[in-house]
Amino acid sequence: xxxxxxxxxxxxxxxxxxxxxxxxxxxELIDGEIVExxxxxxxxxxxxxxxxxxxxxxxxxxxxxxxxxxxxxxIDDNLNDRLPDVGVVxxxxxxxxxxxxxxxxxDLAVEIQSPRDSMKAMLQKAEFYLANGAKIVWLVxxxxxxxxxxxxxxxxLLNENDVLDGGEVLPGFxxxxxxxxxxx
Length: 184
Prior knowledge:
single chain, six-stranded mixed sheet
């Protein structure tokens, strides 16, 4: 006998997030299922290394904003509310969201593999971001010290000897893959 899974809507998810016991925890709503994010110190260092470089670039080129663990939701999606590890939004004129989810995907999304994230789950996250407006996604595999770059029509795997660039999304931005893993 199959057990039917009860899907959670965005409205129910917002109620769940507002509970006091969830105040200091990170959750995502993925296809109607609430999933807790379990980030490690290692994960946080990598995210910090990446967002620092984005923010340094954006300080000199004020064309957008970069953030860590910002909630993003497609406006017409009632079953998803995602937390990319790092996101870059390129329209500096979009209003600052001070509460709740940003109702669009970042232009560049970064997902950093946690110990319990499968490669399949990572790829599904990338496909979701791309299908909903992201132009480029970086998947960071800490244990292998690799970064996979995905766009709608390309997929590239880079190692520590390679240099990432912002492509058409962030022209002029570069980041050595080895610098992502600095301090580990």
